Amino acid sequence: xxxxxxxxxxxxxxxxxxxxxxxxxxxxxxxxxxxxxxxxxxxxxxxxxxxxxxxxxxxxxxxxxxxxxxxxxxxxxxxxxxxxxxxxxxxxxxxxxxxxxxxxxxxxxxxxxxxxxxxxxxxxxxxxxxxxxxxxxxxxxxxxxxxxxxxxxxxxxxxxxxxxxxxxxxxxxxxxxxxxxxxxxxxxxxxxxxxxxxxxxxxxxxxxxxxxxxxxxxxxxxxxx
Length: 225
Fold this sequence. Notes:
This protein has helices spanning about 5-30, 35-55, 60-85, 90-100, 105-125, 125-130, 140-170, 190-205, 215-225.
Protein backbone atom coordinates (compact mmCIF):
# COMPACT_ATOMS: atom_id res chain seq x y z
CA UNK A 1 0.00 0.00 0.00
CA UNK A 2 1.46 3.37 -1.02
CA UNK A 3 2.01 6.11 1.56
CA UNK A 4 -0.69 8.30 -0.01
CA UNK A 5 -3.20 5.45 0.03
CA UNK A 6 -2.27 4.66 3.63
CA UNK A 7 -3.00 8.25 4.68
CA UNK A 8 -6.33 8.22 2.85
CA UNK A 9 -7.42 4.92 4.39
CA UNK A 10 -6.31 6.09 7.84
CA UNK A 11 -8.45 9.21 7.74
CA UNK A 12 -11.35 7.36 6.15
CA UNK A 13 -11.27 4.97 9.10
CA UNK A 14 -11.30 7.92 11.50
CA UNK A 15 -14.26 9.52 9.75
CA UNK A 16 -16.23 6.27 9.82
CA UNK A 17 -15.45 5.65 13.50
CA UNK A 18 -16.48 9.21 14.34
CA UNK A 19 -19.67 8.71 12.35
CA UNK A 20 -20.56 5.64 14.39
CA UNK A 21 -19.72 7.57 17.56
CA UNK A 22 -21.96 10.46 16.49
CA UNK A 23 -24.88 8.12 15.79
CA UNK A 24 -24.38 6.52 19.20
CA UNK A 25 -24.33 9.95 20.83
CA UNK A 26 -27.70 10.81 19.26
CA UNK A 27 -29.15 7.63 20.76
CA UNK A 28 -27.57 8.36 24.15
CA UNK A 29 -29.24 11.76 24.29
CA UNK A 30 -32.61 10.15 23.59
CA UNK A 31 -32.24 7.51 26.31
CA UNK A 32 -30.20 9.67 28.72
CA UNK A 33 -27.55 7.01 29.10
CA UNK A 34 -24.03 7.22 27.65
CA UNK A 35 -22.76 3.99 29.21
CA UNK A 36 -23.37 1.91 26.08
CA UNK A 37 -20.35 3.61 24.54
CA UNK A 38 -18.42 0.89 26.41
CA UNK A 39 -20.02 -1.68 24.12
CA UNK A 40 -18.74 0.26 21.11
CA UNK A 41 -15.16 0.72 22.35
CA UNK A 42 -13.80 -2.56 20.98
CA UNK A 43 -15.90 -2.25 17.82
CA UNK A 44 -14.11 1.00 16.96
CA UNK A 45 -10.90 -1.05 16.72
CA UNK A 46 -12.62 -3.65 14.58
CA UNK A 47 -13.89 -0.99 12.17
CA UNK A 48 -10.35 0.31 11.68
CA UNK A 49 -8.95 -3.20 11.15
CA UNK A 50 -11.67 -4.15 8.65
CA UNK A 51 -11.18 -0.96 6.63
CA UNK A 52 -7.45 -1.56 6.36
CA UNK A 53 -8.02 -5.22 5.55
CA UNK A 54 -10.33 -4.24 2.69
CA UNK A 55 -7.81 -1.70 1.41
CA UNK A 56 -4.92 -4.17 1.61
CA UNK A 57 -6.72 -7.15 0.07
CA UNK A 58 -5.63 -9.78 -0.72
CA UNK A 59 -4.31 -10.14 2.81
CA UNK A 60 -1.07 -11.80 3.78
CA UNK A 61 -1.02 -14.59 6.38
CA UNK A 62 -0.15 -11.98 9.01
CA UNK A 63 -3.00 -9.77 7.88
CA UNK A 64 -5.50 -12.61 8.17
CA UNK A 65 -4.13 -13.61 11.57
CA UNK A 66 -4.28 -10.11 13.05
CA UNK A 67 -7.74 -9.48 11.62
CA UNK A 68 -8.96 -12.74 13.19
CA UNK A 69 -7.47 -11.88 16.59
CA UNK A 70 -8.91 -8.36 16.61
CA UNK A 71 -12.32 -9.70 15.54
CA UNK A 72 -12.41 -12.32 18.31
CA UNK A 73 -11.34 -9.78 20.93
CA UNK A 74 -13.69 -7.03 19.76
CA UNK A 75 -16.84 -9.15 19.45
CA UNK A 76 -16.22 -11.00 22.73
CA UNK A 77 -15.71 -7.80 24.70
CA UNK A 78 -18.62 -5.96 23.10
CA UNK A 79 -21.04 -8.84 23.69
CA UNK A 80 -19.86 -9.28 27.28
CA UNK A 81 -20.22 -5.59 28.17
CA UNK A 82 -23.60 -5.34 26.43
CA UNK A 83 -24.94 -8.36 28.33
CA UNK A 84 -23.51 -7.06 31.62
CA UNK A 85 -25.05 -3.61 31.25
CA UNK A 86 -28.37 -4.64 29.70
CA UNK A 87 -31.28 -3.18 31.68
CA UNK A 88 -28.95 -1.54 34.19
CA UNK A 89 -28.89 2.19 35.00
CA UNK A 90 -26.10 4.36 33.67
CA UNK A 91 -22.72 3.28 35.06
CA UNK A 92 -21.73 5.25 38.18
CA UNK A 93 -18.58 6.53 36.42
CA UNK A 94 -20.68 8.21 33.75
CA UNK A 95 -23.17 9.43 36.34
CA UNK A 96 -20.27 11.22 38.04
CA UNK A 97 -19.07 12.67 34.73
CA UNK A 98 -22.63 13.78 34.00
CA UNK A 99 -22.98 15.48 37.40
CA UNK A 100 -19.62 17.26 36.99
CA UNK A 101 -20.54 18.62 33.56
CA UNK A 102 -24.05 19.92 34.07
CA UNK A 103 -25.64 21.97 32.75
CA UNK A 104 -25.33 20.94 29.13
CA UNK A 105 -23.96 17.43 29.52
CA UNK A 106 -26.23 16.18 26.72
CA UNK A 107 -24.15 18.18 24.24
CA UNK A 108 -20.83 17.99 26.10
CA UNK A 109 -21.01 14.18 26.11
CA UNK A 110 -20.50 14.25 22.33
CA UNK A 111 -16.85 15.23 22.75
CA UNK A 112 -16.23 14.25 26.40
CA UNK A 113 -17.36 10.66 25.89
CA UNK A 114 -17.99 9.64 22.29
CA UNK A 115 -15.48 11.63 20.23
CA UNK A 116 -12.76 11.08 22.84
CA UNK A 117 -13.20 7.30 22.88
CA UNK A 118 -13.50 7.13 19.08
CA UNK A 119 -10.24 9.04 18.56
CA UNK A 120 -8.42 7.06 21.26
CA UNK A 121 -9.50 3.76 19.70
CA UNK A 122 -8.48 4.94 16.23
CA UNK A 123 -5.06 5.97 17.54
CA UNK A 124 -4.43 2.87 19.68
CA UNK A 125 -5.44 0.61 16.77
CA UNK A 126 -2.31 1.66 14.82
CA UNK A 127 -0.30 -1.54 15.49
CA UNK A 128 -3.24 -3.70 14.42
CA UNK A 129 -3.90 -1.85 11.18
CA UNK A 130 -0.17 -1.69 10.35
CA UNK A 131 0.13 -5.45 10.85
CA UNK A 132 -3.06 -6.16 8.88
CA UNK A 133 -1.78 -4.17 5.90
CA UNK A 134 1.72 -5.71 5.93
CA UNK A 135 2.67 -8.11 3.11
CA UNK A 136 5.66 -9.50 5.05
CA UNK A 137 5.61 -13.25 5.83
CA UNK A 138 5.16 -14.61 9.33
CA UNK A 139 8.22 -15.25 11.47
CA UNK A 140 9.30 -16.32 14.94
CA UNK A 141 8.36 -12.96 16.48
CA UNK A 142 4.77 -13.49 15.35
CA UNK A 143 4.70 -16.77 17.26
CA UNK A 144 5.86 -14.94 20.39
CA UNK A 145 3.27 -12.26 19.75
CA UNK A 146 0.43 -14.77 19.48
CA UNK A 147 1.55 -16.42 22.72
CA UNK A 148 1.49 -13.03 24.46
CA UNK A 149 -1.92 -12.25 22.95
CA UNK A 150 -3.38 -15.60 24.00
CA UNK A 151 -2.08 -15.14 27.56
CA UNK A 152 -3.71 -11.72 27.70
CA UNK A 153 -6.96 -13.05 26.29
CA UNK A 154 -7.09 -15.81 28.92
CA UNK A 155 -6.56 -13.29 31.72
CA UNK A 156 -9.25 -10.99 30.32
CA UNK A 157 -11.89 -13.66 29.66
CA UNK A 158 -11.30 -15.65 32.85
CA UNK A 159 -11.04 -12.47 34.92
CA UNK A 160 -14.37 -11.20 33.56
CA UNK A 161 -16.03 -14.58 34.19
CA UNK A 162 -14.72 -14.84 37.76
CA UNK A 163 -15.86 -11.29 38.55
CA UNK A 164 -19.33 -11.89 37.10
CA UNK A 165 -19.71 -15.10 39.10
CA UNK A 166 -18.52 -13.36 42.28
CA UNK A 167 -20.96 -10.47 41.88
CA UNK A 168 -23.86 -12.89 41.46
CA UNK A 169 -23.03 -15.01 44.51
CA UNK A 170 -21.45 -12.70 47.11
CA UNK A 171 -23.45 -12.26 50.30
CA UNK A 172 -22.12 -8.79 51.13
CA UNK A 173 -21.17 -5.76 49.04
CA UNK A 174 -18.18 -5.30 51.35
CA UNK A 175 -16.60 -8.55 50.21
CA UNK A 176 -13.63 -8.27 47.85
CA UNK A 177 -12.83 -10.85 45.18
CA UNK A 178 -9.45 -12.36 46.11
CA UNK A 179 -9.62 -15.83 44.60
CA UNK A 180 -8.73 -17.21 41.17
CA UNK A 181 -6.78 -14.79 39.00
CA UNK A 182 -7.92 -11.97 41.27
CA UNK A 183 -5.66 -13.41 43.95
CA UNK A 184 -2.59 -12.56 41.88
CA UNK A 185 -3.54 -9.27 40.23
CA UNK A 186 -6.09 -6.69 41.32
CA UNK A 187 -7.55 -6.47 37.83
CA UNK A 188 -6.73 -9.53 35.72
CA UNK A 189 -9.12 -8.37 33.01
CA UNK A 190 -7.27 -5.05 32.68
CA UNK A 191 -3.91 -6.82 32.84
CA UNK A 192 -5.07 -9.15 30.08
CA UNK A 193 -6.31 -6.23 27.98
CA UNK A 194 -2.93 -4.52 28.17
CA UNK A 195 -1.04 -7.75 27.51
CA UNK A 196 -2.96 -8.75 24.41
CA UNK A 197 -2.38 -5.31 22.88
CA UNK A 198 1.33 -5.70 23.53
CA UNK A 199 0.98 -8.95 21.61
CA UNK A 200 -0.57 -7.08 18.70
CA UNK A 201 2.26 -4.56 18.89
CA UNK A 202 4.83 -7.36 18.59
CA UNK A 203 3.12 -8.44 15.37
CA UNK A 204 3.39 -4.86 14.16
CA UNK A 205 7.11 -4.90 15.02
CA UNK A 206 7.49 -8.09 12.99
CA UNK A 207 5.80 -6.23 10.15
CA UNK A 208 8.27 -3.34 10.47
CA UNK A 209 5.93 -0.95 12.29
CA UNK A 210 8.01 -0.55 15.48
CA UNK A 211 7.04 3.14 15.51
CA UNK A 212 3.54 2.25 16.76
CA UNK A 213 4.98 1.74 20.27
CA UNK A 214 3.04 4.71 21.62
CA UNK A 215 -0.23 2.80 21.10
CA UNK A 216 0.27 -0.07 23.60
CA UNK A 217 1.94 2.38 26.00
CA UNK A 218 -1.14 4.61 25.85
CA UNK A 219 -3.49 1.63 26.27
CA UNK A 220 -1.54 0.48 29.33
CA UNK A 221 -1.61 4.00 30.79
CA UNK A 222 -5.38 4.30 30.30
CA UNK A 223 -5.99 0.94 31.97
CA UNK A 224 -3.77 1.84 34.91
CA UNK A 225 -5.45 5.20 35.35
